[in-house]
Amino acid sequence: MSRPTLLHLETALSVAHIGSFSGAARKLDATQPAISARVRELEAVLGYRLFTRRGQRMELTTKGRQLLEQVEPLFFRLQEILNEREAPVPASIRVGCGQIAMSAWLGKVIGRMQSANTQLRFHISIGISTVLIPLLDQDKLDIAVTAGKIDYPGLHTERLGRRSMGIWVTTPDRWERYAPYPRSTEPPRLDDLINCGPVWTPPLTSRLYTEQSDILREHGGHMRNVNTCDDSRVLGDMIQNSSGLGYAQHVLIKERLASGVLVEVPGLPVIGDSDYYFVWREAHLSPIVHMLMKLAKTESEQSAM
Q1: pTM of this structure
Q2: What's the CATH number of domain 167-264, 3.40.190.10, 3.40.50.300, 1.10.3720.10, 3.40.710.10?
C-alpha cells in the first residue's frame, strides 16, 4: 500500500473512539483480524505506531493522536460531501461541567463544533466537582471541567482559564427595607440585611460554601436562615423568588441585574477569581476531546482580553 485509504482512516478513528479492535470490528461490520491488518498497514505507511495497549483498551500514541485530530473533521466533511449510504462513525463526547464553564466557554465551543461536524454528539452532565469526579472515575464521563485543581488518583488536569466567582446580590425590596432611611445612598447594616430573610449558598460539599459562610459570619450572619442549592442558575431564581440574599455568578444573572430584579450588595467582600481545569482519565482522551480542549482554551483566552 503506497498511501492510506478512507477505509484505513475510518478504521483508525473507530478504534480510537471505541478503544478496541473487536469493538471497531462490530461497528464496521468486519472481522477483528481485518481491523488489525488495516491498522498495521496504516502504521507501515506512516512509519510510526498509532496505538498502544493499556489493560483492555487500545490507546492512541502521541503521534497517533496528533494525526487523528487533523484527520477526523476532514474525514466527516468528506463523507458528507460524498453523501455515502453508510454514515460515518459518529463521535460522542460525555462532558461534565458546572453552569459557569458551560455559559462562559463550553456552550459556544460545542455549538461551533456541531456546526462543523453534524455527526458529533454531546452528552452533558451539569454538576459541582464533588459530583463530577466520581463520574469520571466510574467511566461515566470522558472529560470534566472543575473550579479549582483536582488531586485525585488516576486523573489528569490541565488549566482551562480563569473566571470571576460572582457577586453578592439581593432583591430591591429587601435592600430598600433595611436602608437607614428612605432613599438613602448609605448601605444598610449588613447584619440586619443578612439575617432578615433567606440566604442562599452552594451545597455543603462545595468549597464555596465554606468561603461564603465565613464571610457571612464575619459580617454578623447567624446562619440559621441559610439554604443551599447545587444548581448555580436555579440559585439565582431562588434569590429572586424568595427575596433572598446570596452570592451569584455574574455571567448567569447579568440580565437580572440589568433589568433591576436583583441588585448588588456593596460591603460584602467578593470571592477571588477561580482557575478552571479540564480533568480526564488518560484512557478517554480521544482526538475529538483534544479538539474540544483546544477550542475551549482559545475561547477562554479571547474572552479574557
Answers
A1: 0.56
A2: 3.40.190.10
